[in-house]
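Hi support team,

I've been running sequence recovery on a batch of backbones for a student project. Most finish fine, but this one hangs at about 90% for roughly twenty minutes before it completes. I'm not sure whether the input is malformed or the queue is just slow. I've pasted the structure tokens below so you can try to reproduce it. Let me know if you need the job ID as well.

Thanks,
M.K.
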């Protein structure tokens, strides 16, 4: 079967970039991305490409080339489902905040709503693709809904998890390490559905990198990949604390172990803690799945990755307080960065939020500068924690659009995100504008220690005591 029409439900960080790249690489396919969020769709359609809802290097260019040619953004979900031969479900699957599995399990209500809508609207056979990250065996629940609610049409369900990382989404989509497609290979229809999706990716991904598996392996591989990646970060962060006590330098340790080809050099940067919408959510989900099968040792093993990450965030703020003579009350601390990593405006689970919350509880005054994150987003992140009234967050924390203003008169600077521009600031002038002693707490280890110490800063880098 040759696919000519695709619908993607969910115009978020995954749906938007993924579909833009499919549209670019497959001009013969009409791709419609739909969402219930009208403002988000309006932003995807905005004339000014600076106003797209998601910032990703290279994305605006692709949208410019494809939008209104074979890429469309719409709120008419029924129409897009009806027209499409293949439907991607790319809705959010956050951690449950209520009921059984609260704080751990994935909340599948958005996926179920999607499945019910597809079932209700479809009058012809469809291939339904799980793009969202889902607990293993979700496809069987989706199939049950589609088959029982639908109009007697045939649905094939595929799992096609997305491995893109934010900030490099376009490059990851154009040159993926692999594309994973799980499907029912035991029936002819299942086989055809898998092949239809393979054929789409084969327009730009070498065949050897398109991996087909059974549905359950595909679903579980996504959770496994994120658990392994996060585990590497927690492992190197655990070593960063030992480094600080012993005089070893975590950067040197990372380099030394990364040159072992069995370990490899990536994902060994010690940090103030991992953030992002995926790692914590997906590990908690994995822990929950293990617990539901009674695999308590497995659950404990993976939960430790989260425990270590929480510890890393807390010990970073604790270190600021203790270094500033055990009180930060009334002291100004400048935050460079709020996003969970560089080159994205996404702040979900960013370490900066927890570090700020801890310091605000110590009555610090914080001034934040981030090149891409809005003031509204920063306040919303803090208010969401409900640690203190919203008015108090607004009084204690201000957001600046100029980094030099944020640092002026500060007692300390905390680097929370590894934005490249931070390296090129005029640090001499920042030093002159600060309270003395002028402290820098580099939660990403990106600044030049020698240069800063020469200027006069007291410089603390995660994972180093020298
Ligand atoms: P997101 O919150 O940015 O986008 C999800 C969108 O789905 C929202 O705009 C929401 O309005 C829409 N939506 C929800 N229910 C809907 C419905 N019934 N009908 C129409 N639209 C609906 O989420 P995201 O970051 O794009 O993540 C989506 C999925 O992809 C999640 O399962 C996530 O775990 C997974 N994932 C995310 C990333 C990432 O880097 N963000 C990477 C890989 C996988
Ligand atoms: C992650 C996975 O990498 C991606 O494959 C999946 O599809 C979604 O989740 P993402 O969360 O966008 O992607 O970014 P990633 O680059 O993995 O970084 C996650 C967090 O770990 C960030 O806060 C980052 O700063 C931190 N990190 C990463 C480190 O602290 N050290 C590292 O060495 C690498």
């Amino acid at each position: 079967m040759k696919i000519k029409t695709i619908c993607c439900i969910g115009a978020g960080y995954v749906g938007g970039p993924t579909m833009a790249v499919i549209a670019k690489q497959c001009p013969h396919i009409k791709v419609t991305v739909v969402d219930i969020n009208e403002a988000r769709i309006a932003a995807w359609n905005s004339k000014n490409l600076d106003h797209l809802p998601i910032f990703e290097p290279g994305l605006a260019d692709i949208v410019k080339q494809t939008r209104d040619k074979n890429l469309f953004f719409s709120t008419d979900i029924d129409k897009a489902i009806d027209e499409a031969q293949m439907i991607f479900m790319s809705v959010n699957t956050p951690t449950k905040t209520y009921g059984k599995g609260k704080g751990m399990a994935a909340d599948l209500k958005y996926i179920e709503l999607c499945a019910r809508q597809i079932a209700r609207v479809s009058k012809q056979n469809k291939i339904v693709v799980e793009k969202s990250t889902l607990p293993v065996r979700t496809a069987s629940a989706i199939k049950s809904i589609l088959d029982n609610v639908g109009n007697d049409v045939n649905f094939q369900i595929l799992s096609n998890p997305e491995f893109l990382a934010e900030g490099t989404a376009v490059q990851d989509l154009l040159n993926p390490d692999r594309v994973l497609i799980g499907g029912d290979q035991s029936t002819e229809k299942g086989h055809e559905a898998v092949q239809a999706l393979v054929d789409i990716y084969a327009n730009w991904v070498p065949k050897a990198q398109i991996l087909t598996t059974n549905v359950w392996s595909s679903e579980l591989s996504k959770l496994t990949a994120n658990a392994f990646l996060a585990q590497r970060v927690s492992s190197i962060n655990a070593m960063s604390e030992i480094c600080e006590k012993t005089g070893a330098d975590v950067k040197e340790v990372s380099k030394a172990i990364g040159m072992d080809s069995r370990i490899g050099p990536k994902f060994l940067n010690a940090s103030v803690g991992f953030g992002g919408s995926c790692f914590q959510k997906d590990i908690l989900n994995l822990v929950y799945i293990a617990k539901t099968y009674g695999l308590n040792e497995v659950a404990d093993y993976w939960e430790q990755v989260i425990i270590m990450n929480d510890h890393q965030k807390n010990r970073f703020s604790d270190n600021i307080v203790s270094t500033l003579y055990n009180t930060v009350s009334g002291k100004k601390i400048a935050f460079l960065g709020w996003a969970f990593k560089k080159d994205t405006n996404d702040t979900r689970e960013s370490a900066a939020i927890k570090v700020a919350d801890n310091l605000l509880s110590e009555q610090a005054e914080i001034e934040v500068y981030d090149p891409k994150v809005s003031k509204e987003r920063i306040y919303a992140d803090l208010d969401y924690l409900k640690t203190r009234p919203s008015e108090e967050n607004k009084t204690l924390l201000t957001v600046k659009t100029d980094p030099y203003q944020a640092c002026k008169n500060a007692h300390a600077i905390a680097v929370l995100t590894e934005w490249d521009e931070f390296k090129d600031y005029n640090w001499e002038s920042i030093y002159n504008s600060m309270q003395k002693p002028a402290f820098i707490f580099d939660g990403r280890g990106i600044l030049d220690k020698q240069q800063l110490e020469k200027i006069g800063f007291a410089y603390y880098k995660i994972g180093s005591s020298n």
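--
Follow-up from support: It reproduced on our side and the slowdown came from queue contention, not your input. The domain at 307-461 is CATH 3.40.50.720 (Rossmann fold). No action needed from you.
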